[in-house]
């Protein structure tokens, strides 16, 4: 600011007035100051101004690098945060970089609130975190913790998928579990309940897995090995998420299994990659934009009213039928 003042031939106080858009400078002087600032490449440090007032107006978002659905959520977080006058800072978990490390990086940059996407941390940790900064959990309920949460009604989504497969005639329906991933426990429970409701207890099978392509590939190889030993393939697979569904489809396709003629596959999330496959993936859609908007609003509202009780937004999912689900092979129903 001193450089701008010297070159424009005015006081530093007048430069400050212009950049704060306050009255006190004539139009000609204002234009000269802005022109000089542009010439020397000066930009007001809005972050420093906010910190001087004790605010950063920044929302920190913790996400996982390889989770495709997280990128869809982030795409919805930015416009809503900007609409409400907040910046967004991202910090990722990855191989060798824990949630705690990603969160501490956000706090060290003075984020006022944290939006954690798909956290698998213990509830006690998230409760402690909420004591340090406003915290919103997306994709997972955290009972007992002082955090707001936004997630889809997992049970409804799984019921829609299972009803769809059963109506097509499927009976041997396998579920690839998502392990500790967000929503996995509820999806697992709902799968089991749906199989029992349709009288398919004898065919119920949950294969341990994760929300990754590698997990889907491993499951595909397992099922193919069982087939080679004389055990028939299932006629349908409900995967823990879209990434897992893509992995199992890759493994089966390489072995000559044709989808959906030989076997149907249903995912969960409706991430943007589910539209880009050679065969569109039948999946349960979570509205990433609506989830993102709720998360941002929860964070901003709690910053203004920290005494509020924790809130929970449960959004209805919707089955999207595409090309990977169809009737079971002839004679398998």
Automatic annotation (TrEMBL):
| Gene3D superfamilies per record | 3.40.50.2300, lambda repressor-like DNA-binding domains (1.10.260.40)
**Positions of the UniProt region annotated as Disordered:** 307-333
The leader peptide range reads none
Name the UniProt key words of this record, in alphabetical order: DNA-binding, Transcription, Transcription regulation
Q: Which PROSITE patterns match?
A: HTH_LACI_2
The HTH lacI-type domain covers 1-53
User: What SUPFAM superfamilies does the annotation carry?
Assistant: lambda repressor-like DNA-binding domains, Periplasmic binding protein-like I
**What name appears for this protein in its UniProt entry?**
LacI family transcriptional regulator
- State the species of origin: Streptomyces scabichelini
């Amino acid at each position: 600011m001193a450089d701008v003042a010297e070159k424009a031939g005015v006081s530093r106080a007048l430069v400050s007035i212009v950049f704060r858009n306050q009255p006190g400078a004539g139009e000609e002087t204002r234009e000269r100051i802005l022109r000089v600032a542009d010439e020397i490449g000066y930009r007001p440090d809005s972050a420093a101004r906010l910190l001087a007032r004790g605010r950063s107006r920044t929302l920190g978002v913790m996400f996982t690098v390889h989770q495709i659905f997280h990128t869809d959520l982030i795409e919805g977080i930015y416009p809503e945060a900007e609409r409400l006058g907040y910046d967004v800072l991202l910090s990722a978990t990855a191989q060798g970089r824990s949630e705690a490390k990603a969160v501490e990086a956000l706090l060290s940059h003075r984020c006022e609130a944290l939006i954690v996407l798909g956290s698998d941390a213990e509830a006690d940790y998230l409760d402690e975190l909420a004591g340090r900064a406003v915290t919103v959990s997306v994709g997972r309920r955290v009972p007992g913790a002082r955090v707001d949460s936004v997630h889809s009604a997992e049970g409804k989504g799984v019921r829609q998928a299972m009803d769809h497969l059963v109506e097509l005639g499927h009976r041997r329906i396998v579920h690839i579990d998502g392990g500790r991933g967000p929503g996995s426990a509820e999806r697992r429970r709902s799968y089991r309940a749906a199989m029992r409701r349709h009288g398919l207890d004898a065919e119920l099978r949950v294969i341990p897995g994760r929300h990754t392509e590698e997990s889907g590939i491993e499951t595909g190889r397992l099922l193919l090995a069982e087939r080679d030993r004389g055990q028939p393939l299932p006629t349908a697979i409900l995967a823990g998420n879209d990434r897992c569904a893509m992995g199992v489809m890759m493994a089966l396709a390489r072995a000559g299994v044709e989808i959906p003629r030989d076997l149907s596959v249903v995912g969960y999330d409706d991430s943007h990659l589910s539209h880009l496959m050679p065969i569109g993936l039948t999946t349960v859609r979570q509205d990433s934009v609506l989830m993102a908007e709720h998360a941002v609003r929860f964070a901003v509202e709690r910053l203004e009213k920290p005494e509020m009780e924790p809130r929970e937004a449960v959004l209805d999912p919707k089955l999207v039928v595409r090309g990977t689900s169809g009737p079971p092979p002839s004679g398998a129903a």
